[in-house]
């Protein structure tokens, strides 16, 4: 990703940028008034007790910055390389095991170093759901021609965000499966807080972009290869006439892009000193929700916060100054929440962006913040996980104990 424009260059650029931001803010405030309430969704804020339960669910927290998923991802994995394929296969194996729907979009594009094969990976919990929350990160690392630069790993860019999404998918799957089986047996929860039949109409999709990095210098044609391809493909793929969105008779007819509630893009995370600002007025409320999740976790001591790390979520409302995988989607009207550290990590695009750049407390904090955020977005309650099977086994145990002579003695002895 890249700053737009380059803020490192001296004052005239900064002045122009500030002026443009000022102008855009005025225009956009008008647009926002026009759109207000359009995309906002009921957020199911969880009680402190439920948040506590939720953070204790499997999978367990990481014990080191190189174990599990991260260990598999912390290798140079430039687009078109053998390692890139290895990483694709690893990501694929995780989601296949979880039972999510997989779609791969292989394609070839021309880059400054020749023709390269790219593959985006798309995982959907329920591909039949009419709408979705999309979480995304890029799994490629930046290509460098010569040794030692070609050993660049990109731990924060974006191995850690990919690992966080894999961890999140493992956590969400049992909750989503529980809900799915309740609904399919006609027992979906319906009360003043949850209407599971309705909630399940929004599924979760995790997109792993290939080819985010430029091969030379970041330009419109040398960067975000995978995201550009996918946004264009989805725009041109119209929904079947049976799709609920088609009943609204939209013009032009709805495409896959219309099924996206919001695209949450994670990038440059996993190190200390994260600074997450909100760039889009349409999704300021999501930034507020994520900050609230972080604050509640801090308040209840459910995350370890290193010294000086309290305020990750800035209150400044900025406007789109960072080029990244979201841009082609934004240009086509998709709501974006860009979760990126700004300023970038100091190790950005250097060999120092390896495992040593990662902070274990920061990764664990992200794991938990993302759990709370997605559960509250999707309306998932940690108390409902596998309730029927757990209840059945408890009932069975009680019955066995009631019949057991040992239990009778214990009861008599009381
Ligand atoms: Zn990068």
TrEMBL record:
CDD domains on file: M28_QC_like (cd03880)
Keyword Acyltransferase: yes
Keyword entries, A-Z: Acyltransferase, Hydrolase, Metal-binding, Protease, Signal, Transferase, Zinc
Organism name: Kwoniella shivajii
Domain Peptidase M28 residue range list: 120-372
Domain of life: Eukaryota
UniProt-listed Gene3D superfamilies: Zn peptidases
First and last residue of the signal peptide: 1-28
InterPro entries referenced in this protein's UniProt entry, alphabetically: M28_QC, Peptidase_M28, QC/QCL
Name of the protein described by the UniProt record: Peptide hydrolase
EC number: 3.4.-.-
EC class (word): hydrolase
UniProt family annotation: Belongs to the peptidase M28 family.
Pfam families in UniProt: Peptidase_M28 (PF04389)
UniProt entry tagged with the keyword Membrane: no
